[in-house]
């Protein structure tokens, strides 16, 4: 798969039966549909389901349009139900793209007070990708 | 004149017939050799896998010395075996020894989860299957060849040109020693 | 091993001829309808048939593999699958090891392709690898190699291509008849034999509508028996009818459907993926016999794993009086083949095999596999997750990905077209030289 930002081949990283694609060039991470839920489930975090819902962002114009690494169609600009971080999602819902550092921002925004606990639990899978920039 | 021609004709026919029988025996004997070489390749493969296996098991179950030594001894004996009949006995003994080794391994969860151990076990299983499947073809070839060397009239040719019957390949596993049942 | 292939050959020619006749006749009707010339249609259809046959003959193998999205694997990608194929190559006396392909598809299934036994290929889905244990996988591979040995693969792909074209032609005809069939009437009335023309036209119409059904019936007649025969071959090769029986059962109850599937490739699979009522009794239009029957027959093989036992079980289960195995095959060494006991079967005592009660074909005492029952614990991943991991890795590797184990515990999988000289681990930030991948 190609990084939607740098257009270079992405690495697949597997840990504890979870596979993610990431780009060494920009350290962005691609989650296939269902992988976020799987990871949270494996970490034993009861994450509120509305925190995993995304709405179409109203500020598309601000960021560049990027192609979905799976289907090639232009990705939608979305943000978490109660957040402001703008992410790219496959129009067919096959996955979602996080730029470097965005995973941390989304958790901080959506998990509120529990943010640090969630970050701690997910460090098992994402390690350095959750570090503060 | 016709008598001589007839006589010569019969002689020529006889010679061709003998040649035919002789060639038939050679063909069958080659088939046996060929089938045996298939098994031989697998036996070598099996013998080559065992030192690796023993090393891997040692890392987790060093104090199962008896079992490990028995496997090594059986393996070394099997390497020296010559001919299908002897090999059959030696391989049977080796199978018996391996069986107790794998029974012992049951008690070591770490060993059982070791990638190298799993890979070796898969290779050994497959080698055993290959030996088993090629053994049938070999024994069929031996049966055909031996029948020819014993039946009239090919037995005369076989006797004249020293076609000896071939050995069958049967793996005899010795009566199992009572290996302690491990329960969790 | 070739006795079935020989007996199949003559029938194959008849089936190919019938199918070709149908295709060319359709061409005739088409020509009459569109160009007012049946001869042109016949000729065009004939040419199409020749081209299709040439493609199916020389490229059928590659076309099927490409259409189904199969990737070739090497031994290190999936050792167990590779070993099983090699074992079955030995058991079946196939002259060469078939190439092995994996299809990334969660539905469990498999097929074999190849014009000749020495250049065949076997393809399995990732779902199959995830679902089956070693004995079951061996059964499915043996079934596929049975198709190769019995020379079904070339024939079925040729018939399959023709069936596909007939279905498509009929579809086109059906649409055009309803939307633009008015042109030809003028000519019919002006020519003298109007009545004959009308009769011919109706006959043509009927042919167009019935052709796909006829074609499927031909295909069914040709393939159904072959499925049973490949099952019988699998029993002989593995000497363990239960392996395939249990595999068929698992495949048929799987709720997952194949993704890349169509009319042409469907009949090639172990279990027809387009079949709706999967466990139903033999239906008229199924290209595969009912899976339930196949399982029942394999499980009723009391007297061993040979043709005799299969034939007896077939008659007992289906109630048919005619033999399914050709008489010529029943006279060979494979008529009676003893079974081996299943490795994981707790009832079987590995020490005292079934050696005694099952004399082999040649009357040899003790000609039973003993070695294959050695390993009580088969060396395969125990948990479903580990098995899925194994299959997924095989797919990555078949696509040329190289693996780097990171000391932090993660595995990095590097695509073949990766350009950078080093790789930073997402999890721990360690830098690895890209060249160190294995
Ligand atoms: Zn990038
Ligand atoms: Zn997409
Ligand atoms: Zn790492």
The gist of it:
The complex is a heterotrimer of chains A (133), B (184) and C (438). With 133 residues, chain A is α+β, with helices and mostly antiparallel strands.
Question: How would you characterize this protein structure?
Answer:
- The complex is a heterotrimer of chains A (133), B (184) and C (438).
- Chain A is built from 3 helices and 7 strands.
- By secondary structure, chain A is an alpha+beta fold.
- Chain A has one domain.
- A 7-stranded antiparallel β-sheet of chain A has the order 1-2-3-7-6-5-4.
- In chain A, strand 5 and strand 6 form a beta hairpin.
- Chain B has 184 residues and is mainly α.
- Chain B is 79% helix and 0% strand.
- Chain B is built from 6 helices and no strands.
- The longest helix of chain B is centred in the first third of the chain and has 59 residues.
- Chain B is rod-shaped.
- Chain C has 3 domains: 129 residues, no CATH class; 198 residues, 2-Layer Sandwich (Zincin-like), CATH 3.30.2010.10; 37 residues, no CATH class.
- About 13% of the residues of chain C have low confidence.
- Chains in contact: A-C, B-C.
- At the B-C interface, helix 3 and helix 5 of B face helix 3 of C.
- Bound molecules: zinc ion (3 copies).
């Amino acid at each position: 798969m190609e990084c939607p930002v740098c257009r270079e081949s992405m690495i697949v990283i597997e840990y504890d039966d979870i596979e993610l694609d990431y780009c060494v060039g920009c350290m962005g991470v691609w989650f296939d549909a269902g992988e976020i839920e799987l990871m949270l489930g494996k970490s034993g975090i009861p994450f509120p389901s509305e925190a995993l819902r995304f709405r179409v962002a109203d500020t598309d114009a601000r960021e560049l349009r990027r192609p979905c690494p799976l289907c090639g169609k232009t990705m939608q600009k979305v943000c978490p139900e109660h957040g402001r971080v703008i992410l790219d999602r496959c129009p067919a819902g096959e996955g979602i793209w996080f730029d470097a550092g965005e995973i941390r921002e989304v958790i901080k925004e959506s998990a509120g007070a529990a943010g640090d606990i969630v970050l701690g639990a997910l460090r098992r899978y994402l390690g350095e990708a959750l570090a503060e920039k | 004149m016709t008598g001589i021609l007839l006589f010569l004709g019969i002689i020529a026919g006889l010679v061709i017939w003998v040649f035919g029988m002789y060639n038939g025996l050679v063909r069958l004997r080659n088939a046996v050799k060929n089938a045996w070489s298939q098994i031989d390749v697998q036996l070598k493969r099996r013998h080559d896998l065992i030192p690796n296996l023993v090393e891997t098991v040692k890392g987790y179950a060093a104090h199962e010395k008896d079992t490990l030594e028995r496997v090594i001894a059986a393996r070394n004996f099997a390497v020296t075996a010559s001919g299908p009949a002897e090999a059959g006995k030696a391989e049977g003994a080796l199978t018996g020894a391996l069986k107790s080794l794998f029974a012992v391994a049951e008690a070591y969860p770490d060993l059982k989860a070791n990638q190298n151990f799993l890979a070796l076990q898969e290779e050994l299983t497959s080698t055993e299957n290959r030996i088993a499947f090629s053994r049938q073809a070999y024994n069929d070839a031996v049966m055909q060849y031996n029948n020819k060397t014993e039946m009239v009239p090919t037995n005369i040719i076989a006797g004249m040109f020293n076609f000896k019957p071939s050995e069958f390949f049967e793996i005899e596993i010795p009566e199992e020693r009572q290996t302690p049942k491990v329960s969790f | 091993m070739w006795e079935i292939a020989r007996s199949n050959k003559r029938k194959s020619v008849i089936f190919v001829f019938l199918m070709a006749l149908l295709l060319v006749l359709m061409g005739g009707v088409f020509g009459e309808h569109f160009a007012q010339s049946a001869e042109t249609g016949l000729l065009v259809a004939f040419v199409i048939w020749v081209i299709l046959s040439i493609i199916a003959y020389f490229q059928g193998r590659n076309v099927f593999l490409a259409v189904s999205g199969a990737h070739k694997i090497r031994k290190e990608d999936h050792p167990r699958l590779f070993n099983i194929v090699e074992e079955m190559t030995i058991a079946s006396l196939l002259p060469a090891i078939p190439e092995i392909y994996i299809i990334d598809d969660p539905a469990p299934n498999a097929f074999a392709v190849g014009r000749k036994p020495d250049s065949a290929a076997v393809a399995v889905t990732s779902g199959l690898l995830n679902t089956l244990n070693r004995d079951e996988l061996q059964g499915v591979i043996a079934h596929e190699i049975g198709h190769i040995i019995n020379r079904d693969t070339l024939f079925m792909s040729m018939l399959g291509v023709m069936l596909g074209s007939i279905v498509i032609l009929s579809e086109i005809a059906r649409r055009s008849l309803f939307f633009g069939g008015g042109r030809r009437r003028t000519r019919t009335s002006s020519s003298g034999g109007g009545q004959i023309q009308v009769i011919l036209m109706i006959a043509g119409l009927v042919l167009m509508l019935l052709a796909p059904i006829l074609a499927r019936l031909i295909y069914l007649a040709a393939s159904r028996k072959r499925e049973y025969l490949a099952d019988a071959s699998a029993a002989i090769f593995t000497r363990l009818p239960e392996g395939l029986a249990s595999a068929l059962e698992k495949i048929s109850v799987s709720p997952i459907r194949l993704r890349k599937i169509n009319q042409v490739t469907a009949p090639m699979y172990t279990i027809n993926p387009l079949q709706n009522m999967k466990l139903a009794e033999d239906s008229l239009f199924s290209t595969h016999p009912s899976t339930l029957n196949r399982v029942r027959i394999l499980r009723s093989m009391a007297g061993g794993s040979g043709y005799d036992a299969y034939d007896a079980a077939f008659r007992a289960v289906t109630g048919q009086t005619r033999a399914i195995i050709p008489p010529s095959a029943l006279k060979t060494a494979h008529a009676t083949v003893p079974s081996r006991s299943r490795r994981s079967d707790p009832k079987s005592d590995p020490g005292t095999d079934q050696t005694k009660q099952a004399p082999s074909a040649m009357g040899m005492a003790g000609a039973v596999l003993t070695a294959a029952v050695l390993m009580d614990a088969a060396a395969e991943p125990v948990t479903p997750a580990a098995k899925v991991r194994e299959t997924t890795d095989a797919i990555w590797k078949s696509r040329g990905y190289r693996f780097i184990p990171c000391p932090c515990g993660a595995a990095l999988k590097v695509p073949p077209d990766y350009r950078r000289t080093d790789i930073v681990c997402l999890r721990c930030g360690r830098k690895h030289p890209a060249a160190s991948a294995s």
